[in-house]
Amino acid sequence: MYKYALLAALAITGLAACSQQDESQQQPTEQVAAATKPSDPNDTKAWNAYLGQIVQKNMQGMTADRPFPYLVPAGDNDDANALRQRQLEQVQDTVARGVLPGNMLVFAGPDSAKTAEFVTDAFKDAKPGAFKDVIVLVIGDAGDKDKVTTVLQPTGATIRYVNM
After folding, report:
1. The pTM is what?
2. Residue 67 confidence (pLDDT)
């Protein structure tokens, strides 16, 4: 469900960007306010808006029609743990099958440590070189960058890590 919410946010952001680009030719003085990092880890709408703008700025080199985002939920309650586990199984299946070059996988969430753990668990069994020319964008805290980069480097993916 979070995945579809983030996809919707990305689509809306993309459409808004196109619309704003057209409007900017007519009214160059208008500016769009950037979404700020939400303080509530459960505010999915705010997180989708915030993360969607980061994804939009990091899509260069992607040739697929859309990215594949995964919003890793925060929290340690049963619902959050179950949702993370289902997402993890889905991503592990994707990693095992492989991803076509030109695609982009995006991993982000309110809890950077949980996101880093998610990416590490998802890619720990990836075949070396299996993600050549695939962009993997991870949005998190600077302290988690090395953990994520270490597990992704052998895959051959183009790694983009953006600090929140």
Report:
1. 0.78
2. 93
